[in-house]
Amino acid sequence: MAIALASAWGALLLVTSGCSPQHGSPEFRVNLQDILQESQKATDDFRVTGREEDDDAKAEKKANREKLDFVATALVAAFGTPDDPYLFAEVGLPSDDPKWRSLEPEDRKKRLDLKKIELAAGSPGGDREGKQRGLFRQHCAHCHGVTGDGAGPTAAFLNPYPRDYRQGVFKFKSTERNAKPTTADLKRTLVEGIPGTAMPSFMLLPNDEIEALVEYVKYLSIRGQFERDLAIGLLAQDEDIPKTGAELLETYLTPIVERWAESEAKVVRPPEPPPSDTPEDHLASVQKGRELFFGKQAGCLKCHGPMALGDANDGAAEKDRLFDDWNKNKNAENISLWLLPKLELKPRNLRLGIYRGGRRPIDIYRRIHAGIPGGPMPAGGTEQGGQKGPLEPDQIWHIVNYVRSLPYEPISRPHAERATALLKERN
Amino acid sequence: MFRNSSLAWFALVLSAVACAGCGRRATGMPLVADSAKVDEAKVEELRMTTGSKAEEPQETEAAAPAVEPTEWCDLSGQFVYEGAAPDARPISVTKDEQVCGKHALVDESLLVGSQNGLKNVVIFIATNKKQKLFIHPDYESTSKDVVRFDNKNCRFDPHILPVRTSQTLELHNSDAVSHNSSIEQANPLLSKDATFDYHFDKPKNEPVPVTCSIHTWMKGYVVARDNPYVAVSDEEGRFKIEKLPPGTHEFVVWHEASKGKLSAKSGSFDLKRGKVKLTVEPGENDLGAITLGASAFQAK
Amino acid sequence: MGKFWSILFLLVPILGVGLFVWAPGAGFWLPRDISTHGHQIDHLFYFVLWLTGVVFAATEVILFWFLWKYDANSNREPVKYTHGSHNLEVIWTILPAATLLFIAIYQMNAWADVKMRIPKGLEKKPTVEVTARQFEWRLRYPGPDGVLGTPDDIHHVNDLHVPLDEEVMVQLKSMDVLHDFFLPHLRIKQDAVPGMQIPVWFRATEPGTYDLVCAELCGWGHYKMKGRLTVEPRAKFDQWLRELASAQEATQEAAPDEPEE
Known about the structure:
The complex is a heterotrimer. Helices cover 44% and strands 2% of the residues of chain A. By secondary structure, chain A is mainly α. Chain A has a two-stranded parallel sheet. A two-stranded antiparallel ribbon of chain A has the order 3-4. Chain C contains five helices and ten strands; from the N terminus they run ααααββββββββββα. Chain C folds into two domains: 2-74 and 88-115; 122-248, Cupredoxins -  blue copper proteins (Immunoglobulin-like, Sandwich). In chain C, the strands form two sheets. Chain C has a five-stranded mixed β-sheet.
C-alpha cells in the first residue's frame, strides 16, 4: 500500500515537474544590459555583501538599490504590466474616451491610442465578441520578447536578431537618421515584412490588428527608452528621484514622446530624380552611379567591397569587423549581461537583389541619404535645413540606379562596358 | 506492482530530481533584476500626481549662500605610469593602404612617454547638482567657439577633445579619402574637406567615443561637459586646469585603457572608483606626480 | 456482458458511416471546387471513399455478427479449431491486390493531367514565381516586359492574384526548407523543394478570394503560413499588376492624409 502511494506521489511529481512559475502572467524584463553598462556599475553595486570598504560604500549601495526600485516602480506607474497596460493621460488615451475626442488634432497626434494597445496586450485568445486579443504575444513576442527587447525564445536562432525596441532605434524608416520612424513606416514593416530576415509579412491580418500592433511597438519602445533614461539619469548622473508624477513625466517621458510626435516632420522627401526614361539616359545614370560608388567621395566600396558583394571586411580581425551599436560593446568583461551572443554585421551584398528596407528607388535613396541608424552605414545626404552632406540628391539618384542594376549586371561584363559600347555605336 | 520498497524509493528520488527543474528562470540574468521591488503605493501616487506642477527644486540650504569668488586657482599635476613603459603597438592598416599606410599609425589607447608620463588621462569636474560651480569670466569669450575634431592622417586629431555644451563640435576631414564619424546617433559621411557640426545638449559623464566604420582602427573621444574645467594629459603626463573656483571639488579621472574605474593613492590624492575629492586654494595647486599602477590598465 | 461489447463494436460502423452522412450537410466537407481538373480528383476521392466504405461496413457487420453469435455466455459448446483455409487466404489476397492495382491504373490519368501534362507552351510562360520561405509566400510577377528575371519584375508577398478562366502557371521554389503550396479550392498540392523549380498549373473558373496554405511542416510558424489567392478577370488582374509595378518604382512619397476620427 505504501509502495503504491509512493509511486503515485512520484508520478504526480514527475507530471508536475514541467510546471514553472512562468505560467501565469509574464513580466517585463529589466534592461540590465544597458543600465549596468552605461552606468558603469556591477550587480554587486546593488547588494550589500558585507565586504564593503567603508560606510560610504554601503550607503552608496543602498542608494543604488533604492534607485533601481524606484525605476521599477516608475515603470509600472507609467506603463503598467504586459497584461494590463497603462499610460499617463499626457502620453496616451483610449480613443473611445471623451477626453480623446476633446483634444486638438495636434495633441491627439502626440498621444498613443490606449485602446489599440489594449487590443494588442494581454494573453492571446478571443474575447466574448470573438475579437482576437493579445496580438503582440500571439504574433511577435516569441522573437521580439514580451518586453520588446529582441531576445524572445526564438531570437537566438536568428541572424539578424529581431529589433530591440528599447533602444529607440529603428533601421528601416523614411525619416532622417536620428528621427523616430513614422507610424506609416512601422506599418509598412509589418505589412511587407523585411526580406532577407526572419521578419515575415503580416499582410493578411485585418487592418485594425496591424494598427494595434504598431501602437504596441511604439508603447514598448517608449517604455524601453524611458527605463534607460531614468535608470541612467538616477544611477550615472546622480539626478534626484522624482517626487511627483509630473516631475517624472516632464523630465524623462515627455522628451521621448515628443521625439516620436515629430517624426512626421522629419520624413526624407527627395527631389525628383534626373530624367532617365530612355535607355541611354538610364545607362548614363547607372554609369555615373558606378563612378560615384567606386569613387573617393562616397567610398561605398570600402565596406561593400570592390564587387559590391559586401566582402570588404571578410577575413579581417575581430576588431576590424563591423557591428550594430547594441552588439559593439559586448566583450568578455560584460558577458554575464548579454541576452544574446555578439553577432557581426556584414555590409550588404548588393548583388542579391534583397533590400531589407524596401526595393523602391525612394527606399534606397533614403538608405544612402540618412544611412542606417544603429549601424555603420553613414549618412551621405544633406539633412533638411541641415549641413551639406558630401552627396547631392542627383548623385544619390545615380547611385540608386546603379545599385538597382547590380543584381542584373554580370560581374564579368559590367554596365560600363555596355554603356561605352552603346555610345560608341551611336557616333 | 513494485516487488520491493527500494524501487519505490527510487521512484521517489527520481521524481524529486525531476522537480529540480521547477521554478528556474528562463535566462541567467543576475538576481538583482528579480528583486527590484515595485512599491504599489508609490505607483498610485505617481499616477495621481501627473497633473501637478513640479515643485520648484528646494534651494539647497547650503552652509553659505553662493558667492562669486574673487580669487581663482590653477590645478596641475603629472600622471605617471608605474612599471615598464609598453611600446606603442603599430596598427595594421586594412583599408586605403596607399593613403593611411604612410603615417606609421599606432594604437593610441595606452601611450607612455619618455619619463613614464601617461598621455591622454582625462580629468574633469564631476557634475554636482547641489553646489553651484562658478566659471571664470575669461572663459566667456570661448564659450561659443567652434571646436574641430579632425580626421587627419587616418586618425582622429586630437585623440581626446574637450568640448563644452555651449560650443559647437566640428567634425572635419583633412584627408584625401572619405571618412565617416560615428558619434552617438549621428554618423555623417565626410568627403575631403567636408565638415559636420554636432551639438551636445547635455553634458556626458564619460568621454563619448567617435569611430569610423570604414577605417575601423580609428577611435577618438570627445569629452562633453557644461564647464571648461577639463584637461587631458600630454605626452609627459602633465595637465593643467586653470582658473578654478576655490574650494573642494570632486574630479573624475578617466583613461580609455583602464580596467574598470581607476583607483590610486598618492599622499592626499585618494582616487577611488574613478573619483577624487580635491581642495584647491587660490594660486597654484600642484599635485605633483600621481602614480597609476600598470595593473590598472590593459592595452586594448 | 458479451452481447454488450458486440453492440458497442456495432456502434463503430454506425457512427462512422453516420458521421460521413451528416458531415457534408453541416459544412465539414470538401471545399468548393473552382478548378477545371478538380472534378477528376474529387471523383477519385468519392470512388475510394465508397469502395472502402462498403468494405468497411461489411467487415464490421461480419465482426459484430460473429461476436454476437459466438458470445461465450450463450455458447456452451466446446470450441472448434480450424486449420485455416488455403482457398480463403488466396481469395482475400488476390481480391484486394487486384483492387489496388485497378485503383493505381484508374488514377493515372488524373495524376498525369495535374502533374505531367502541362499545356503546350506554358512552361515558358510563368504567370508568377512563388518562392516559399519561413513563413510567408514571396511572389514575383514578370513586369511590363513580360519576362521573368528582369529588373522590372514585380515583387509582392502573400497576396497571390491570378487571372480568371486562363491557364495559370506557377513556378514554385523554396528559399529555405520544404514547404507545400496548397490551394484547397483548386485541388492543387505541391511540395516546394529547396533547389528545385517546379511548375504548377491550373485554371480557375470562379472569381473570389480563396486560401493558400502551407501543407508541409516547415517550422514553428507552419500553422500560420497563410496566403490569399484572388481570382479576378484579366483586366482587373492587369490593372492590379500595373499599380504594383508603378508603386515599386516610386521615387516620391506623398504625405499621408490623416483622417480625423
